[in-house]
């Protein structure tokens, strides 16, 4: 579960930084050609380390997620990593001066975190029960 926490952090904490790094992309002038527009936007975003650094860290979170799935239950890993990512996005965005999340967002984040905590707790109980049964049969 520590890996899932790290995945949630890498996914969530980098999102506001990626948003900041990509600011101004919409100001790229229309050249009249779809391909030239694409190349101009790619050149604009490609030259920004403030975009690429958090993007790279975000992708490291994806690599860690795939690595974690080798040993984790997918029914636990998916909701925990995604909900923690959502929570870290809200917290990091707030710390960077983005608008304060509304009451519904805060309540939703708390409920999702509580649900993730219950899922982890249930998984721990199941593993303990499984271990106890293995000891009795040996």
- Unreliable runs, pLDDT <50, ≥5 residues? none
Number of helices: 5
- The average pLDDT value, as a whole number, equals 86
What order do the helices and strands follow? HHHHH
Helix fraction bin: over 70%
**First-residue to last-residue Cα separation:** 28 Å
Outline: elongated
What is the tally of beta strands? 0
Class from helix and strand fractions: mainly alpha
3D architecture notes:
- The structure is a single chain.
- The chain is elongated and about 70 Å long.
- The model has no long low-confidence stretch (mean pLDDT 86).
- It has helices spanning 2-21, 34-46, 49-69, 74-95, 103-137.
- Helix content is 80%, strand content 0%.
Topology overview:
Layout: H1 2-21, H2 34-46, H3 49-69, H4 74-95, H5 103-137
Short key terms for the protein model shown above:
single chain, 138 residues, mainly alpha, elongated
